[in-house]
TrEMBL record:
Residues 764-824 form the RAP domain. GO terms for molecular function: kinase activity; RNA binding. SMART domains: RAP. PANTHER family: FAST KINASE DOMAIN-CONTAINING PROTEIN 1, MITOCHONDRIAL (PTHR21228:SF29), FAST LEU-RICH DOMAIN-CONTAINING (PTHR21228). InterPro entries: FAST_2, FAST_kinase, FAST_Leu-rich, RAP. It comes from the Eukaryota. The keyword Protein biosynthesis does not apply. The gene is fastkd1. Keywords: Kinase, Mitochondrion, Transferase. This is FAST kinase domain-containing protein 1, mitochondrial.
Length: 832
């Protein structure tokens, strides 16, 4: 009866707006306009503060901070304020009285103020939230997961519990913000099945969310980067939403998104073209060190020289105000653009040197990497960096960290390596993956070469370590049982050690796992086979079967990687695969990035495929203009590679598909390219030249490094008449192309009779083929060498190819044998 009367009294006061027991403290908090006012109210009402008051005060303090720019935030000042300590004590005492939402919000806010994770308040809040975890609403669960990540508990059993809850209740999550936050927090614990389910749900929510909320797709991209899984349909959707919001993105957001895209190897022409003008707009407003650093890192690599110079001048003015981490970011950007601004380099190096004690191991490694690639000269700084790296190495117990430090230490000069470094490497080497083992082997090989006594002491510590690396690598391959994990380890594994020690064992392992080849891992496997230059018919046949069967499931961007080994390694038993791939490409031709379409066209041309729709698209004026714009945003290396492949594709189309009437427009490009390079003959080529002179009756019957129409370079050229007699050269004739693309032989001022070959005469091209023209594991000719032969024959040459393994064989070990070999190849083909 008493409770009923109390309830009725409260209801009357609520309904009639009575003034009795009005919460005056809450009212005072709600009208506060700054942190000091909130803290003042807390100080004056300590004894009256309830859970609601504490929650409101802490939430308001963080909201005020959140609304300020990063440079103006006063988190440390607030955290050290006496009344903030009061709030912490009160919060800890009232945890049991908090409802679920307040509990998680309180934890989140205190962590935003950098309250230590070992503080009793934080630990009790986490413990209480764990007890209530099964009943937390998804929004609070998402925020709690974010807090655990901030506390480095992303791999904890508690995060595992959250992952299980999300797995069970995924279909009930209808907010993209909640889902994307959860995806990031639990990314290290998701299974392949849950990963696919999360991506599928994310795609659905992106279609219904507010497109102005660009942080949701940004977090989804971050999730994919975290799990190293590039799912193109979701990436494309995220990218479209980000593009819609480009005018609202600041330099920090753009820098973050670009870093995620690079990590996923995702290139978007539309994004690249939109980013550059947006960043240029932000130059005038990016005047503080924080925003300018983000701008410099993102804009400098893609800016014109004029804008780049302006950015470097501003960086020089702001250098002394940079934090240690901002200085490191600027140093890495300078390395990206290969800056030669010595004043700026010295300034940035000075800031870094003053703050070496602040950096973590990975950051010191980044410093060494950037400065060494810039070829920056400062022995004193390098000596300090080396001392720090050795101390880190001697303390580290993490395999990936020891590997990283080993690699960076090998960059720095040293007379003799510390015993502690070698001991630490020996202790962790059995825990390393294949990529780490490969990295360590490169470093050990460097140290071995620099060891003064290694030539006289084959049982040195380095040799023993290399033997351990060899054993660990073989054992890891023999124990491998999951193809996806193995391909991830092999992704960046390459070099002499791998080729000599592990390549054969790797191929045995891959063939053992052939039944695990699936449409999802086919692109990665194809890229690896191309990289190691190893032709394996059983693997390629299996890849072709899987790809043809599931071609509709494979994203069209994966087609390039799939056909790459078949074209590059010249595997000619894949007609059905090429047909299916061409159909997929033409169906999505407008969706490809310009540079990727060029690379794809060249790869098909290697295998003698020239789909008309693809060729006409690539050589349209509109496409070439778009390609030029895209190339301005790519790295110098990728830009040079794309331009070279476009020239080679242009040449191939002109020679092999004249009916397409594509003009040859790379004359100037080839001339400039030719001027930059220098033709040098190897000892074997010089030997062949001398032998050809003897076989043909004189050096004047042989020309060296002849540039053909369309700018192929033939090692040696000669002309044989209809009786197979060599015709001497009397002058340096040139080869030209008519306006219509017809090939004709130019005139020589000394011998006009050489304009046209005598009836029945034949031009002969002799090319020496070194090991780069063949697959590593066989004498199988690669696709580019075969295409060169095809094109020379179209231009009227008889092509004689001299493989290195034949010229250097035991059978051809005397001058007479070499001459007989050349005679047989030169005259035998013509006489037959």
């Amino acid at each position: 009866m008493f409770r009923l009367r109390c309830g009725s009294s409260f209801l009357r006061r609520l309904l009639h707006g009575g003034t009795v027991n009005r919460d005056k403290v809450l009212q005072q908090l709600q009208v506060c306009a700054a942190e000091d006012q909130v803290l003042d109210v807390v100080g004056k009402n300590k004894a009256k503060l309830t859970v609601n008051h504490v929650s409101t005060a802490v939430g308001m303090l963080w909201q005020f901070q959140r609304e300020k720019p990063q440079m103006l935030r006063t988190v440390k000042v607030i955290r050290c304020h006496p009344q903030f300590l009061t709030l912490r004590v009160l919060a800890e005492n009232k945890i049991a009285l908090m409802d679920d939402l307040t509990l998680v919000d309180m934890l989140y806010s205190f962590l935003r103020f950098n309250v230590d994770g070992h503080d009793s308040l934080v630990q009790q809040l986490v413990s209480e939230a764990w007890l209530r975890i099964d009943r937390l609403p998804m929004e609070s669960l998402s925020k709690f997961a974010m807090c655990l990540s901030n506390l480095n508990l992303q791999n904890s059993p508690l995060m595992g519990h959250i992952t299980s809850i999300v797995d069970q209740r995924l279909s009930s999550i209808d907010d993209a913000r909640i889902l994307s936050s959860l995806m990031i927090s639990m990314s290290s614990l998701v299974s392949p099945r849950l990963r696919d389910a999360l991506i599928s749900r994310a795609e659905e929510l992106l279609d219904t969310m507010d497109p102005t909320k660009f942080n949701n797709p940004r977090r989804m991209v971050q999730f994919m980067r975290n799990i190293k899984h590039s799912y193109r349909p979701l990436l494309d959707k995220c990218n479209k939403i980000i593009l819609i919001n480009m005018s609202r993105l600041d330099a920090e957001n753009i820098s973050m998104i670009m870093g995620l895209y690079q990590g996923l190897q995702f290139n978007s022409c539309d994004f690249s073209l939109a980013v550059k003008p947006r960043l240029t707009e932000l130059i005038d407003s990016s005047t503080d060190p924080h925003s300018f650093t983000k701008l410099f890192v993102t804009l400098a690599p893609m800016a014109s020289q004029e804008i780049r110079d302006g950015l470097e001048n501003t960086a020089l003015l702001l250098a002394d105000e940079l934090t240690p981490h901002q200085a490191l970011a600027v140093a890495e950007a300078l390395q990206d653009i290969q800056s030669r601004n010595l004043s700026l380099l010295n300034k940035i190096a000075s800031v870094i040197q003053r703050n070496l004690h602040v950096y973590k191991p990975v950051e010191v490694a980044r410093v060494v990497q950037a400065l060494s690639l810039l070829k920056y000269q400062n022995p004193e700084l390098y000596a300090k960096l080396r001392q720090i790296l050795v101390k880190f190495m001697e303390r580290s117990v993490l395999p990936y960290e020891v590997t990283m430090l080993t690699r960076v230490l090998s960059i720095l000069p040293c007379q003799r390596l510390e015993e502690g470094v070698i001991s630490r490497v020996e202790e962790i080497v059995t825990q390393c993956n294949l990529n780490d083992l490969n990295t360590i082997s490169v470093a050990v090989a460097k140290w071995l070469r620099n060891e003064p006594s290694y030539r006289h002491n084959t049982t040195s510590k380095y040799v023993r370590l290399l033997q351990t690396l060899n054993r660990c690598g073989r054992e890891r391959l023999q124990k491998a049982d999951r193809l996806d994990l193995l391909l991830e380890e092999l992704k960046y594994t390459t070099g002499e050690w791998f080729d000599e020690i592990l390549l054969d064992e790797t191929m045995v392992t891959l063939k053992r796992m052939m039944d695990q080849i699936h449409w999802t891992n086919v692109p990665a496997l194809c890229l690896f086979l191309t990289k190691i230059n190893h032709i394996c018919p059983p693997l390629l046949d299996r890849i072709a079967t899987v790809a043809i069967k599931d071609i509709d499931k494979i994203h069209h961007w994966g087609i390039y990687a799939i056909i790459l080994p078949f074209s590059v390694l010249n595997y000619d038993s894949a007609d059905e695969l090429y047909d299916a791939s061409i159909q997929c490409v033409t169906a999505h031709i407008s969706s490809f990035e310009p540079h990727m379409l060029v690379l794809l066209g060249y790869t098909l041309a290697l295998a003698d495929y020239f789909p008309e729709e693809l060729v006409r698209e690539i050589f349209s004026i509109e496409f070439l203009g778009k390609l030029d714009a895209k190339l301005e945003t790519l790295s110098d290396t990728l830009t040079m590679r794309t331009r070279l492949r476009l020239m080679e594709l242009n040449r191939a189309v002109c020679l092999e598909c004249p009916e397409y009437q594509v003009p040859w427009f790379h004359e100037n490009y080839c001339q400039q390219f030719q001027k930059k390079g220098t033709v040098t003959a190897s000892p074997m080529q010089q030997q062949i030249y001398n032998m050809l002179g003897e076989v043909l009756g004189g050096i004047n019957c042989v020309r060296v490094a002849v540039v053909t129409p369309y700018f192929y370079t033939v090692d040696f050229e000669c002309v044989l008449d209809k009786r197979l007699q060599p015709l001497p050269y009397s002058g340096p004739s040139t080869l030209q192309i008519s306006d219509r693309g017809k090939v004709h032989w130019g005139t020589s001022s000394e011998d006009t009779t050489r304009d046209v070959l005598p009836p029945g005469a034949q031009r002969v091209a002799v090319n020496f083929l070194d090991s780069n023209s063949f697959c590593k594991n066989s004498h199988h000719l690669r696709g580019n060498a075969l295409m060169t032969k095809r094109h020379l024959e179209i231009m009227g040459y008889l092509v004689v190819q001299v493989p290195h393994f034949e010229w250097n064989s035991m059978e051809l070990s005397t001058p007479n044998a070499w001459k007989e070999y050349l005679k047989k190849n030169l005259f035998g083909q013509l006489s037959s």
